[in-house]
Amino acid sequence: MAVAGRAVADDSPFTHQAHTWISAPVPGTGVITLHHGPDGEGQILARHAGRTVRWRPLPPRSVLAEATRAVWTPWVNAVAVATDIEGQLPAPALTGLALAVADDLTATRRDLLGRVHPAICHALPPAAAPPDGYRNLPHMVSVYTIDGRRTDRIVWELAPEALLPVLLGGPLPDTGVLVEIHARLRLWLTLRAQARIGQLPATPLGRLAGELAAAEPLTMPIVYRHAAELLDLARRDDPDP
User: Fold this and answer.
1) Residue (of 162, 105, 99) closest to 133 by Cα position
2) 76: left (phi over 0), alpha (psi -120 to 50) or beta
3) Cα separation of 198 and 179, whole Å?
4) Tens digits of per-residue pLDDT, 97-131?
5) What stretches of 129-191 adopt beta strand conformation (E)?
6) How many Å is the Cα radius of gyration of the chain?
7) What is the distance between the terminal CA atoms of the chain, rounded to a whole angstrom?
8) Of 70, 127, 164, 206, which is least surrounded by CB within 10 A?
9) How many CA atoms are closer than 13 Å to the CA of 109, on its beta-carbon side?
10) Cut 0.90: pTM above it
């Protein structure tokens, strides 16, 4: 699986092949870091364009705390979290995708924040509550499968709450609205894909999605900004997500 689109604003290709970064499953739960340079903590999993991918095994209860600590480590550009869901560990492609998206988010935000602040992404949907001061937020990204098909996926980020207004271009919706938005992630992914190929349904929701995706792919920040209109129309089509 190779990454084929940015997570935040546009849909231009990533510069990295996600599946080449990590070629074997990580041996348990832990934190994967992308370092700019040869130095760093942990076992080296891969080398890429002068950077190293490193793995630190950790018990599940320590993974998120270590991930938030790792972003302050010198030369770290991106962090991916490998946790299990009911004993299932992430496949190499998902771990590579999470790291590639985190790296892309870091680069995209460098000018916005005026500094490097490494992003943290999950290889699997988060099963635990985030640490204090953080939120689990989804990003919609486009990927190519091994057989060349283009599809859309959700990659979750462990994002610092203090930076969210800047990163998202505005505040998050209220908690109840946010819960419903996240319950309908499959719908937003479908609309994103339909808009890209020009096959949105001829419904009020389809027309609104077409307007919102006219200049750029449908993203979660767009969904947040237009939550009231999108959810109103989505409820008419499907009251129970």
Assistant:
1) 162
2) beta
3) 29
4) 888 899 889 988 888 788 888 999 997 888 888 99
5) 134-144, 150-160
6) 18
7) 28
8) 127
9) 25
10) no
